[in-house]
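User: I'm curious whether this sequence folds into something compact or stays loose and floppy. Could you predict its structure so I can see for myself?
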Amino acid sequence: MSVASVHGLVKRFGTKVAVDGVSLTLEEGEIMGFLGPNGSGKTTTIRMICGLLTPDAGTGTVLGHDVLTESRAIKREVGYMTQRFTYYEDLTIAENLAFVAKLYDLKPAREFVARTVDELGLADRSNQLAGTLSGGWKQRLALAASLMHQPKLLLLDEPTAGVDPRARREFWDELHRRAAQGLTVLVSTHYMDEAERCHRLTYISNGRLLMTGTTEEIVSRSGLHVYVIEGPGLSAFAHLLEASPGVDQVASFGTTLHVVGREEKALKSSIEAVTHGRNVRVREGETTLEDVLIDLMDLKRERAA
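Assistant: Here's the prediction. I'll summarize afterward.
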């Protein structure tokens, strides 16, 4: 069942078109990853879906409410977590959550706060000032505030930026637990390991959606070919390959070189020319999601040029 479905969303700021004809459908219980470079329109799209911005054009519904005319209802029924911590640092965790409970008119507020701190593992810190929390605990408080009114749709704008790996993993475990219970999540991220934990992905650039699908679908449709070079003196090979025909990406991974291109014949010829007679081993590799996204970003730069 569709929780949100928008079509042809457009948002302008003066002469700049921040979002240009975005169409997106979110199904119940799925986690949709929202990917794209900085300034691509991710945050603006999220804010239109959650009712904070009104589209200049387009149609759609979120939780059964019209995105053009029922933004107030949408804002009350979705959860929205920004990248920047926006709660009161001179209040405790419990006091911040009590304030949020009053905003949503949750009664009795004390019971909502108690249940939320218990579910999110905040009970032992409920009397700690928010300003003294680490990045991971601030993130958990923000997630608790976004979930306290039990939304069916949760929108997250780069929620784990600057958070340590353990806290990120715990955060994603919580998202998957909630999704299994029916919560729908749209989350923007720059972390590839997080993107791969999403059920589906959408890539946006210059305000336009370029690709949607599972990780496997996006990788298989990319048309990229990958070869791995192992051996000594790889930095010299990298320099030569970067200027070779058919080579679109060269990246070092530990003691190996990861070489990527769309035109396999030209790619193989360039690798053979550079490595011939050298003490290195060349093998075929697997295309990763990161390869595909970097390729999309490079295509954007080529078209802009």
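Summary: The chain is about 35% helix and 30% strand. Residues 137 and 167 are 8 Å apart (CA to CA).
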